[in-house]
Amino acid sequence: MVAFVHADTRITAGYRYTTLTDATGKTTLFRILARELEPDAGKIVIAGKDLASISPRELRASVMCRIFQDYLLIPFLSPLDNLLLAAEITTGRSGKKDKKRALELLDRVGLTEHAYRNVDLLSGGEQQRVAIARALMGSARILLADEPTGALDRDNTEHIALLLADLAHEEGLIVIAGTHDSQFAAHADAIVRISEHQLILES
């Protein structure tokens, strides 16, 4: 069991936060935010709404999206088809508007020329950019990124860090990234350290 004490923390739209940990707790925090675990006490409030009152489908479609260290893409599909499938699963819809949105997002992450290639032919950095675009197919305003550069080299780490910072600042997205990577963390607007069961917000 992991217990957080003095965990009152306010997170603001348009900022990119990075959680760093020198103890246990990061994975537990992310699982609570994603509603994979329920806290025994306390609550998480998003835009005035208790997280516990939000249905799983609403959470995925319009509140919170996620990217992972190992991307979790479908390897025999193209980036475009990965995005369209995610939209259909998350929102229960598919159509021309979703394709337009998917192509816009792939352009936003610099992958227009790879939109129709199989994702297993892309580099690790390119696959992570596909994963970021896929996460944004809904209207979620919070992006959870668990070790998003853990499998990347320094150049791709820098690219992904700058991309997430741009998305936060230009689109009002809240990016909460869990990492042990000081290079990635250097681009954060604020650091939330998890130490001795406490969340410590540093500007």
From TrEMBL:
Residues 2-203 form the ABC transporter domain. One of its GO terms (molecular function) is transmembrane transporter activity. It holds the Pfam family ABC_tran. One of its GO terms (cellular component) is plasma membrane. PANTHER family: IMPORT ATP-BINDING PROTEIN. This is ABC transporter domain-containing protein.
